[in-house]
Write a structure and sequence with these properties.
The complex is a heterodimer of chains A (about 200) and B (about 425).
Chain A lengths: L5 H5 L2 H6 L1 E6 L2 E6 L26 H8 L4 H5 L12 H10 L2 H20 L13 H7 L4 H13 L4 H18 L6 H11 L3
Antiparallel strand pairs in A: 1-2
Helix pairs in contact in A: 6-9, 8-10, 9-10
Chain B lengths: L8 H6 L3 H9 L4 H11 L5 H5 L2 H13 L7 H17 L2 H13 L3 E4 L7 H4 L7 E6 L8 E5 L6 H16 L3 E4 L5 H11 L4 E4 L13 H8 L6 E4 L11 H11 L3 E4 L7 H11 L3 E4 L10 H8 L3 E2 L4 H8 L36 H9 L6 E2 H12 L5 H14 L2 E5 L2 E4 L9
Parallel strand pairs in B: 3-4, 3-7, 4-5, 5-6, 7-8, 8-9
Antiparallel strand pairs in B: 1-2, 2-6, 10-12, 11-12
Classes of the chains: A mainly alpha (about 200), B alpha/beta (about 425).
Chain lengths: ~200, ~425
């Protein structure tokens, strides 16, 4: 993703937040629905080796300029910002030998969670947790006292925006759904927070 | 320019000798030649130059330049004499006063080798600057001083070590000198201030030019003389940094110190140049050792091989100043954290050895390294070893979040984790 220019990437901000693209002309406004799942990938620096300083020879300035293509507001709209590690050769070979068995179990869990969400939101005009707006999040992703304390601790240590706060709640709700849990538990919140990642 | 110096000293530091300032700033003459003029003319103050006749000036220049007959030609001596005379002629009382006043308005102080306040350490180096511009305070001759330097592109290890050494030394009353550069320099200066110590930055540009811009906060605090700190330069106000100014500036960094401490450096680097200056000046050099596979520890390890002192913990340097009574810390046994007092134990500079109540958290904490960054999966495997049971990535992630909440771990870069090094590590 950082290979695109910042202005191009920033165009994603509206559809990511509002699930539509609005184009205004003199004679009126067009609204195009834009409900999508965005999966992006990027390197930590232009050469890609950071933080291995034995191989990364990018200067701090180069690194910062590269990262700045992904603006703060854009990154804030990402639910999960995770690190993908390099796969070793042994792993790749072992994976090929093991076969597709684990995917099947995961698929069942995902289908079960999806059913749970469809049932929860029946008649409300949306299907999944991701489609909740701020108000909906407050309503459907309620926390108990322990959960609220956990969120206070987690969000106190770093600067989490209101948007970020709600996104964490929705992810936690999905994690709980995948586990078949009715209530959002602190471990769901912690995992959601961890998946959200830094920067 | 508030700071902690005594009241009587205030006037002396704000005094600027307008003759010396004019000579240093306008005569187009380097410190070496100015010193030669002084020694040949038996001068005590620059004012005496201004009292001379033109002929006396020419003779003096001739004598001074003749001393270096082999180095420069006669033409150079005549040109220098010409410049000097022109400068003296132009240096009317009014202009001299204005120049001094300009400095005062910018909050810049000026000291020359004529002054009592000139740092004694600099008098003894091979090529001391005749004049020094500064903001804040000058390093004291009566307190020990250590120059902390290292790579600009330092690793977390280098920054961490810079903080630990600088903080502990500063808290013990040692003055810290550096170049305010990005990386090790800046971290050392900042930590010294944080631990209540005096921090001095020597710049490769005018004292009114903040370079690099990134360290402006620290620069301003030092200009304000916080805890007796200061920012110094031999270059005139307004002078922008240039590449070839930095080696010259480095000689002042080591010149103002008793010991030079190198935290991290590549094999060929500006840091090596400073180490060479330190050798010329007869200063002791210490280096922080690193892994032999780390490019950024190559310079340090080589220095140690060549005879520099090995800096494993701040006590190695403190002992140098305050005698061996300054805390000989016996290194604890590996893998025996029980021996450590959980409140204050130090295992080298790796941070406090903790014993956490929750065995799962303890297992993860032990897997974390103080400086090495590790990915979640590698840590998960270590946890499995420590606990003797399987650990899912989810569980590992949850425990990591918990440790980060508690302040024992941090994620300095997405996906990479290490132990948290709190600010004020030197205060322990």
């Amino acid at each position: 993703m950082p290979e695109f220019s910042r202005t191009t990437l920033d165009l994603l901000r509206q559809p990511l937040e509002e699930r539509e693209i609005r184009i205004t002309r003199n004679y009126g406004t067009y609204r195009f629905p834009a409900r999508f799942l965005l999966v992006g990938a990027g390197n930590p620096c232009p050469c890609g080796y950071y933080p291995d300083l034995n191989r990364c020879r990018c200067s701090e300035k180069e690194r910062r300029r590269y990262r700045q293509h992904l603006s703060g507001p854009l990154m804030d709209r990402m639910d999960m910002r995770i690190h993908v590690r390099v796969t070793g050769v042994e792993e790749m070979q072992a994976g090929a030998a093991a076969g597709p068995s684990r995917s099947e179990a995961v698929r069942k869990r995902v289908e079960a969670a999806a059913e749970r969400q469809l049932y929860r939101y029946r008649g409300a005009g949306i299907r999944f947790n991701a489609e909740l707006d701020a108000e909906g999040t407050e309503r459907w992703c309620r926390l108990n006292a322990e959960g609220e304390r956990c969120m206070r601790d987690l969000c106190g240590r770093s600067t989490v925006s209101a948007r970020g706060y709600h996104r964490i709640l929705r992810i936690a709700r999905t994690i709980a759904d995948l586990d078949g849990a009715e209530e959002i538990r602190t471990e769901d919140l912690m995992e959601a927070f961890r998946l959200r990642g830094t920067e | 320019m508030g700071d902690g110096m005594g009241v009587g000293m205030e006037d002396e530091r704000d005094r600027i000798d307008p003759y010396a300032l004019w000579l240093y700033a306008k005569a187009g003459m380097g410190s070496k030649w100015i010193r030669r003029l002084y020694s040949h003319g038996g001068l005590q103050t620059a004012g005496q130059l201004f009292d001379m006749t033109e002929k006396e000036c020419e003779d003096l220049c001739g004598a001074a330049y003749a001393e270096s007959a082999g180095e420069v030609g006669k033409g150079t001596a005549e040109k220098a004499a010409g410049r000097l005379k022109a400068a003296i002629r132009a240096g009317t009382a009014q202009r001299r006063e204005e120049a001094a006043e300009r400095l005062r308005r910018m909050g810049i102080r000026f000291v020359t080798m004529e002054d009592r306040l000139y740092p004694e350490r600099l008098r003894n180096i091979p090529d001391p600057p005749f004049g020094l511009y500064y903001r804040g305070c000058l390093p004291s001759d009566d307190r020990p001083s250590v120059a902390v330097i290292g790579a600009r592109g330092a690793t977390r290890y280098g920054i961490q070590q810079a903080r630990i050494f600088s903080g502990t030394l500063a808290a013990a009353g040692v003055q810290i000198v550096s170049g305010l550069a990005v990386g090790v320099d800046g971290a050392a200066e900042e930590e010294a201030l944080y631990c209540g110590g005096a921090s001095f930055g020597v710049l490769g540009c005018g004292v009114d030019v903040c370079y690099p811009e990134r360290n402006r906060r620290i620069y301003e605090r030092m200009c304000a003389g916080e805890h007796g700190s200061g920012v110094l330069s031999e270059f005139p106000p307004g002078e922008q940094p240039k590449r070839n100014y930095f080696p010259a500036r480095n000689r002042l960094i080591s010149g103002l110190a008793d010991i030079l401490l190198v935290c991290e450096a590549r094999a060929q680097s500006g840091t090596q140049i400073t180490a060479d200056h330190a050798l010329d000046q007869g200063r002791d050099i210490f280096a922080v050792p690193g892994r032999n596979i780390d490019a950024l520890s190559e310079g340090c390890n080589r220095l140690i091989r060549q005879g520099a002192g090995i800096a494993i913990c701040p006590q190695d340097l403190l002992g140098h100043f305050f005698g061996s009574g300054a805390g000989e810390e016996s290194q604890p046994e590996e893998g025996d954290p029980q021996k450590q007092d959980p409140e204050s134990g130090e295992a080298g500079n790796g941070g406090v050895e903790l014993r956490l109540a929750d065995p799962v958290q303890q297992a993860l904490f032990e897997s974390l390294d103080a400086a090495d960054l590790q990915e979640m999966d590698a840590l998960r495997e270590k946890m499995e070893e420590n606990l003797g049971r399987g650990v899912s990535i989810r569980e590992a992630g949850a425990v990591m979040s918990k440790l980060m909440l508690l302040g024992y771990a941090q994620e300095p870069c997405s996906g990479y984790y290490c132990r948290a090094i709190e600010k004020g590590a030197g205060k322990r």
